From TrEMBL, chains A, B:
Pfam families: LacI (PF00356), Peripla_BP_3 (PF13377). Coiled coil: none annotated. InterPro entries: HTH_LacI, LacI/GalR-like_sensor, Lambda_DNA-bd_dom_sf, Peripla_BP_I. One of its GO terms (molecular function) is transcription cis-regulatory region binding. This is LacI family transcriptional regulator. Residues 18-74 form the HTH lacI-type domain. Keywords: DNA-binding, Repressor, Transcription, Transcription regulation. It comes from Pseudarthrobacter enclensis.
DNA sequence: CGTTCCAAGTAACGCGCGTTACCCACAAGG
DNA sequence: CCTTGTGGGTAACGCGCGTTACTTGGAACG
């Protein structure tokens, strides 16, 4: 029986349209008084008695404030908008989760609008502008743009009308504040982990060398090696498609090229999907992980990293944290505070599992 | 230079607060006239000339309607709300995508609010009620509830105040319309595919036998076998945790139990993660896929299915379609149309890859 | 020339609420 | 007795827009 749930709410709540005036009438006061107690106005002089009378009336009638009307009158919506192709390509949903949670804590609402920037020639060309426009029609107080992978983007003009923060991407032609993962530190920490395990001959399965992720992670790897008095052997860096097949193929090349002691004892795969492929290449050659070859990944794609056998040690992209930080930054901006930094780097933590 | 983008939008657009009155003044007409042309009113008698004059004014001033005010005056928000733990556990984000896209087509907006029903003892207990409440404050015209996995749920009382549709879940104690995958047909189609490939001895890696997914899929499998004049050998059905490890272990058990001709030649894994584990178990025993053992999965978790080697043939859960159908159903309800059906089943299509 | 009718608009009210200015009774102070 | 607060409220305006009723100038009609 559903009868047992929240019996405190009376049936009258079901009839829509209980307004502040109704509450006022029921409590025998003016609408203004109701407004004052409901918005917890500081210097309002309302006696404790009528205050409770009003609250009782609210309960009795099942009054529910009308957010739209409130926004209209107060000229502030408590809404942020986020436009993102994540809805379309759900690789980095955790950004939304982080942002959503943070917004919720701040008693704000997040309007999610779809974008398709990823495929600029797709049928939804212009969807992004439309989405931004729609959000502005809702009078959002700030805008977030989130990308599925770290890259430069072009933000619609109209985004300038309201504070804007970029998440997991950066403004290719302007100076909007942005929040991106610290790829370099991530690459460093990954290689440091391998060094700590005693590996000195480390192969790198690289991504498309031009994207920010590849540049940063490789740079970090180089730093770690240099700090240990080693060099990054260009011979040991091979690129491939950012897929399992690409990783399989690239790992195969590097493993077949060397024998015995010359063979690298560890592979740094610049993303988890490639690590997944590398696993197969290693196993096919009768080698074990991490016994013969240690593997470390990047991205921490749960479905892969946590389910590979052995489970993959990898560096996590801080999606959730970036989302939350985005909202916090936006809150600061809309409150009129100065921008904290043009670009904020968020740490990529190492997740120890069993492949090193 | 950002200067090259959308030069059509004048700088004046940046000053907020261009209102309909401004447009009217600029066009030399009344505000009513502006309202009429902007809302494309049918029987409004506005001459073609003033109509264009008004449109020009809109362009010139960069007028943007205020959705909140419009909602207030027209008493319809064009918003649906969706509350879901998907934000928290992004397994089935495609539901949101499907719903979002459909809503966008209908020129409606989807407000996404988080839930945590999945872990009822979590710190966010009651979050769901709060989310619903918040959505109702926004005066959404309808509500969607979406779950990450097919199951029964309890919906907050207040959801009754407005048309409500459940996606990927069903009302455990009421009669709200719901949309769920046709697990049985999915199980059937999976086994039919194996039968078609000539397999008659089929092992089943089962989930927790109590959840709807397991019940339905197994039932479907049985149907397919019966239709082929075969029986579902209970010996060949083994359960395990719904993880890669669970699948590895269960598949190992089943493979080690039989030798030679008695060994099943195909495995129907009731989800892809278990299939992922089964792959390892099979390969470790020196068997090939699909040569020695064919494998078919369920769920179509892209990250797994598309990247396993060989790629996994599996049955897809129609998340996106369910989301879209949910919005369409909601649209029908809010338009006053009768409920199409208490529970709508959505097809689970077979995705052929290379493991059968 | 008076009436009718219609195209082309406009005045004015209300949506539900925040907010500012104001009011009033009463007590304290001089 | 008159002033001056002060606690406890209220009247009224405006937020930006949809909508209904009303107006007006001219053309058609008899």
């Amino acid at each position: 029986m559903a009868k047992s749930t929240t019996p405190s709410k009376p049936a009258s709540a079901r009839q829509r349209g209980v307004t502040m005036t109704d509450v006022a009438k029921h409590a025998g006061v003016s609408r203004t008084a109701v407004s004052f107690v409901l918005s917890n106005r500081e210097n309002a002089s309302i006696s404790e008695e009528t205050r409770t009378r009003i609250n009782d009336a609210v309960q009795a009638l099942g009054y529910r404030p009308n957010a739209g009307a409130r926004a209209l009158a107060s000229r502030r919506s408590d809404w942020y908008g986020i436009v993102t192709e994540i809805v379309t390509a759900p690789f980095a949903v955790d950004i939304i989760k982080g942002a959503q949670d943070q917004a919720w804590l701040d008693r704000r609402f997040l309007l999610v609008a779809p974008s398709d920037q990823a495929d600029a020639q797709g049928p939804n060309q212009g969807l992004e502008d439309a989405a931004t426009e729609k959000l502005l029609e809702q009078r959002v107080e700030g805008l977030l743009y989130a990308a599925t992978f770290h890259r430069g983007v072009h933000v619609p003009q109209s985004a300038n009308e309201v504070p804007t923060v970029l998440i997991n991407c950066f403004d290719a032609d302007g100076k909007l504040p942005s929040i991106v993962p610290d790829e370099r530190a991530g690459g460093r920490v990954a290689v440091e982990r391998l060094l700590k395990a005693g590996h000195t001959r480390i192969g790198v399965i690289n991504l498309d060398p031009d994207i920010p992720a590849a540049v940063g992670r490789l740079e970090g790897a180089r730093e770690a090696l240099t700090a240990a008095g080693l060099d990054l052997d260009p011979e040991l860096v091979v690129s491939g498609y950012a897929t399992a097949d690409g990783g399989y193929e690239a790992a195969g090349r590097i493993l077949d090229r060397y024998q015995g002691e010359h063979r690298p004892t560890a592979l740094f795969c610049l993303n988890d999907r490639m690590a997944m492929g590398a696993y197969d290449a290693i196993k096919e050659r009768g080698l074990t992980i991490p016994g013969d070859i240690a593997v470390i990944g990047f991205d921490n794609q749960e479905l892969i990293a946590a389910y590979l056998r052995p489970k993959l040690t990898t560096v996590a992209l801080p999606f959730e944290e970036m989302g939350a930080l985005g909202v916090r930054t936006l809150a600061a901006l809309t409150a009129g505070q100065p921008i904290i930094a043009d670009q904020q780097l968020v740490d990529c933590p190492l997740l120890e599992r069993s492949s090193v």
